Amino acid sequence: MKKLALIVVLLTTCVSFATTWHVEQATGDDTAAAADSSGKTAFKSIQKALSKSKDGDTVLVGDGVYTAAEGTTSNVNGRTYLNITKGITLKSVNGPA
Question: Measuring CA to CA, how many Å separate 78 from each of 9, 61, 71, 74, 75?
Answer without folding.
Answer: 52, 23, 16, 10, 6
